[in-house]
């Protein structure tokens, strides 16, 4: 499919008219019409914005299947839930700091098989969630159906998807290490800009420590991008109020070989 077909298909799937898309992009509706009938193409600088509005990736706009950097589709291929169904402890912290006295808008970035997104939806939050793994998303949708809750799950790549709407709570667990160094500031600034006042960002990230050997998964392509430095995540949020900034070292044998990880955990509020 060429880019015009992809734009047309995704626009219609979201129920957007050509005029509505044109307004969001500050272009004329004739421009959209020309892209969609193949007589012209959007400027390259518009691609990140088009991808964000159409809830997709630049890769898929250009007709490439979105390549997850990982083998998660395979890991999520079994019937059981790879990460189990117990919600992340950070979900309870979210409930403590921002109890669902109203349907706060949450986005779960890299939601995997959806255990946390579904848990939060079951507790009254208005949840949107994305992941690069189609297999994970399909199990996540099944889980939401099982509990009879609505979660807006969609496929996107954290490296090129940028938020357009504002959220009260932005949550991401075990995903930021997939964001390459050169994109980090841009990704984090987008999340911060799209957090409501008194909203929170709840994020953890694996960090490097000189005294902890690299995990064995490294050779298998799990930790493929530049590691985060200890404290780096906190620096990006230096101008927010910290509810939690912790670093912990834990044992893991996800690859079958026991090893250790170091993780920075942040809960920060935009004041
Ligand atoms: C360690 S798992 C964490 C899943 C989930 N947050 C949880 O805690 O159960 C990492 C997740 O990041 C997703 N992921 C990896 N690369 C990604 C990317 N570039 N964009 C979006 N998601 C990605 C994987 O598919 C996987 O579901």
From TrEMBL:
Keyword DNA-binding in annotation: yes
UniProt-recorded name of the protein: DNA-binding helix-turn-helix protein
Molecular function as annotated in GO: DNA binding
Pfam families: HTH_3, TehB
Keywords: DNA-binding
HTH cro/C1-type domain residues: 7-61
Annotated source species: [Eubacterium] siraeum DSM 15702
UniProt keyword DNA-binding present: yes
InterPro entries, A to Z: Cro/C1-type_HTH, Lambda_DNA-bd_dom_sf, SAM-dependent_MTases_sf, TehB-like_dom
């Amino acid at each position: 499919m060429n880019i015009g077909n992809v734009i047309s298909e995704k626009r219609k799937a979201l129920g957007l008219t050509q005029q509505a898309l044109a307004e969001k992009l500050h272009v004329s509706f004739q421009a959209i019409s020309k892209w969609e009938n193949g007589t012209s193409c959007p400027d390259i600088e518009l691609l990140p914005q088009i991808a964000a509005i159409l809830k997709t990736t630049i890769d898929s706009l250009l007709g490439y299947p979105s390549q997850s950097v990982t083998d998660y589709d395979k890991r999520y291929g079994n019937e059981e839930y790879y990460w189990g169904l117990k919600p992340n402890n950070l979900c309870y912290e979210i409930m403590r700091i921002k109890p669902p006295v109203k349907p706060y808008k949450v986005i779960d970035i890299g939601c995997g098989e959806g255990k946390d997104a579904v848990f939060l939806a079951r507790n009254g939050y208005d949840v949107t969630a994305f992941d690069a793994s189609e297999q994970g998303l399909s199990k996540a949708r099944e889980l939401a159906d099982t509990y009879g809750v609505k979660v807006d799950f969609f496929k996107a790549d954290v490296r090129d998807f940028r938020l357009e709407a504002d959220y009260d709570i932005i949550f991401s667990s075990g995903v930021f290490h997939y964001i390459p160094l050169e994109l980090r500031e841009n990704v984090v600034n987008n999340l911060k800009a799209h957090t409501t006042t008194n909203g929170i960002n709840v994020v953890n990230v694996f960090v490097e420590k000189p005294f902890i050997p690299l995990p064995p998964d490294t050779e298998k392509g799990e930790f493929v991008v530049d590691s985060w430095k200890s404290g780096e995540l906190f620096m990006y949020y230096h101008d927010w109020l910290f509810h939690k900034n912790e670093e912990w070292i834990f044992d893991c044998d996800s690859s079958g070989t026991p090893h250790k990880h170091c993780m920075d955990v942040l809960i920060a509020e935009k004041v």
